[in-house]
Amino acid sequence: MTRKLIIATVLMLSTVMVSCSTKPSDSPKPSDNNTTTVEQNKDDNGSSNADSKKANETTSDTKKVNKLKLSIYSIDDNSLEPNQSGTIEVNENSTLQDKLKELAKAVSEKKFDNLPIEVKSIDTVNGKKVATINLTDSNNKKWVPKFQGSTGGSVTANTLIENFLQSNNKSKGEWIDGVKFLYNNETIEYEHASDLSTVKYAN
Questions:
Q1: What ranges does the record give for the region Disordered, renumbered to this chain (predicted)?
Q2: Count of alpha carbons within 13 Å of 91, Cβ hemisphere only?
Q3: How far is 122 from 195, CA to CA, in rounded Å?
Q4: How far is CA 189 from CA 7, 116, 184, in A?
Q5: Which of 27, 94, 99, 196 has the fewest beta carbons closer than 10 A?
Q6: What integer pLDDT is reported at residue 35 of this predicted model?
Q7: Kindly report the CA angle at 92 between 133 and 182, in degrees rounded to 5?
Q8: What dihedral angle (degrees, nearest 10) is formed by the CA atoms of 89, 155, 164, 189?
Q9: Where are the domains positioned within the chain?
Q10: Strand, coil or helix: what is 39?
Q11: Is the alpha carbon torsion for 142, 144, 148, 154 positive or negative?
């Protein structure tokens, strides 16, 4: 009798164990979870990258700098008339004084062998904006030959006046009305460059 009970118990336990091992799992496979997470991350990254690109494009648009062209003039030795020989670009939003400084640098390099040309000030005289430009050479007289000779002195004077007044440049924007030149902070008193001794106004 005891033997029969033991056999019956073993059979019942075996049946229960087989039933438990074959029961399907309700929980999702790990691989399914991983796939979902990867797809979600992909979507998040894609959206994030698109937003970042759009932000960068907006930033680059706001940083865009508007430029305007200033003319560089040469003077004909015979007619003493100005001819545009080049241009430079300056930031349209720079101050008038900064634009003049960039022009002074270019004129010095292209027309006067890098002799210093200093923008001292812009003053209002009788309602007009007049720039004072100082030609400097620390008293070593490197500017002096530029003021001499009937043709040489006139070419120097006209080159400086035309370049700073930009009279023929219709796209210069806000600009000075007149210009006054000094040599080492003093009035320029050379016969052949006499036009540099007084204030010159745009036509």
A1: 20-61
A2: 9
A3: 19
A4: 134, 19, 12
A5: 27
A6: 46
A7: 0
A8: 150
A9: 29-64, 67-201
A10: helix
A11: positive
**Residue 88: CB atoms within 10 Å:** 18
Give the gyration radius of the chain's Cα atoms. Answer: 42
Rounded to whole angstroms, how far apart are CA atoms 69 and 182? 26
Residues near 11 by Cβ (< 8 Å), separated by ≥ 6? none
Say how many residues make up the chain. 203
Rounded CA-CA distance 180/161 in Å is 9
Q: Look at residue 138 in the predicted model and tell me its pLDDT.
A: 84
Q: Is-contact 189 140, C-beta < 8 A?
A: no
Mean pLDDT in order along the chain per 10 residues (203 residues): 53 50 48 47 52 54 79 97 97 97 98 98 97 93 96 98 96 95 97 97 91
**What Å distances lie between residue 86 and 20, 111, 146, CA to CA?**
93, 11, 21
What are the φ/ψ torsions at residue 195 (nearest 5 degrees)?
-65, -15
